[in-house]
Amino acid sequence: MKRRSVVLLIAVAVLIVAANLVFFVVDETEFAVVTQFGEPIQAVTTPGLQWKWPEPIQGVQFFNNRLLVYNSEKIEFLTSDKKNIVVENYVAWRIADPILFLKSLREQSRAETRLTDVVASELGTPWDGRSCRPWSPRSPAPCACPRSLTRSPAGAMSRPRSTACGSWTSG
Fold first, then answer.
1. How would you class 86 by CB atoms within 10 Å of its CB: exposed for 0-12, middle for 13-18, buried for 19 or more?
2. How many whole angstroms separate alpha carbon 135 and alpha carbon 149?
3. What is the mean predicted confidence (pLDDT) over 145-159?
4. Do both 125 and 139 map to the same domain?
5. How far is CA 32 from CA 97, 154, 156, in A?
6. 42 and 86, same domain (yes or no)
7. Total number of domains constituting the chain
8. Alpha-carbon distance 80 to 88, whole Å?
9. Domain that holds residue 82
10. pLDDT tens per residue across span 73-104
11. What's the CATH number where 89 sits?
């Protein structure tokens, strides 16, 4: 009787370990990309219990599907009338295609680095050849900002659009 319960306990433990290797749970706030031998084969966008082959054959990587906000460093620009302006901006973005995101960027920090480069170059273009008048609460905006970014940092990210000077949201 004692030996039988030990065998049953070991069998249950093996089943639990096997289930953890085969099944995975996708939360409603994330995407999952199933990779086979390192190559992405399937994007799972629906939450719930999913299955895959065990770890040596297939793996899973999770990505956030919520709107992500990236606050970049303040950027200083020189206007045509030789005045320095400091622009503080933020980017709100989300992953649109998890497989393309995994192939091109692999992780969020790389995406934020690319966003910093693109936003800095796009924010610098409206100040070329323009002058800014001093700002006051009663006057309109001292400088015009671009309407939209013409390119996105990666095809996997939504294209941002401008809503206010130095403020960018996903579109």
1. exposed
2. 25
3. 43
4. yes
5. 11, 19, 14
6. no
7. 2
8. 20
9. 68-170
10. 888 888 778 888 888 888 899 999 999 999 99
11. 3.30.479
